[in-house]
């Protein structure tokens, strides 16, 4: 009897879903699939769009979330599928970056629970950085803040990557 119930459940549930990424993305999806889900995504022609084996070939120039404006980069494996999504605030004043950090941290904590890690870099003459991380079922989420006191500027980034991908 139990075997038949398990078999019926498998028929109803169907195949295992792809690993969920940021919002409606799935890890491994093609650039064409990302563009179909996000029509605002355009080719990324920035010169800093390569990071080792990853290429940020698509981006959304402006995306608003938690009261802040971001640029969204979709990072793909060379010749492969989606491997990372990163949101970046424009470099701005420190007060604005602090507000974005607080609102994003609160939103991520509400969605994913308490952070699993938090690290503050040792301040230097030029910068201080803060990294906070969460884990979802298949995804590692990282919140990064870089403060550049001498320039009176700071920026915030949020990254999503498969948990098997290692560091964010």
Protein described:
This protein has 168 residues and is α+β, with helices and mostly antiparallel strands. The chain has one domain. It is 23% helix and 40% strand. Strands 1, 2, 3, 4, 5, 6, 7, 8, 9 and 10 form a ten-stranded antiparallel sheet that branches. A hairpin with a 2-residue loop joins β3 and β4. The chain is globular and about 40 Å long. It starts with a helix and ends in a 6-residue tail after the last strand. Residues 1-20 form the signal peptide. Keywords: Signal.
Taking all Cα atoms into account, the compactness measure Rg is 18 Å
Strand share of the residues?
A: 35-45%
User: Largest beta sheet, briefly?
Assistant: 10 strands, antiparallel
Topology order in helix (H) and strand (E) letters: HHEEEEEEHEEEE
Percent helix: 10-25%
């Amino acid at each position: 009897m139990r075997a038949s119930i398990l078999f019926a459940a498998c028929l109803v549930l169907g195949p295992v879903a792809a690993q969920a990424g940021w919002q409606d993305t799935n890890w491994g999806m093609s650039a064409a699939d990302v563009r179909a889900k996000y029509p605002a995504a355009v080719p990324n022609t920035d010169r800093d769009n390569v990071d080792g084996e990853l290429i940020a070939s698509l981006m959304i120039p402006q995306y608003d979330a938690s009261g802040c404006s971001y640029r969204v980069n979709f990072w793909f494996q060379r010749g492969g599928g989606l491997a990372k999504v990163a949101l970046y605030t424009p470099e701005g004043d420190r007060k604005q970056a602090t507000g974005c950090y607080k609102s994003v941290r609160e939103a991520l904590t509400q969605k994913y629970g308490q952070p699993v890690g938090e690290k503050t870099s040792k301040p230097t003459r030029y910068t201080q950085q803060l990294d906070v991380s969460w884990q979802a079922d298949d995804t590692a989420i990282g919140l990064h803040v870089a403060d550049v006191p001498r320039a009176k500027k700071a920026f915030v980034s949020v990254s999503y990557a498969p948990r098997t991908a290692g560091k964010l």
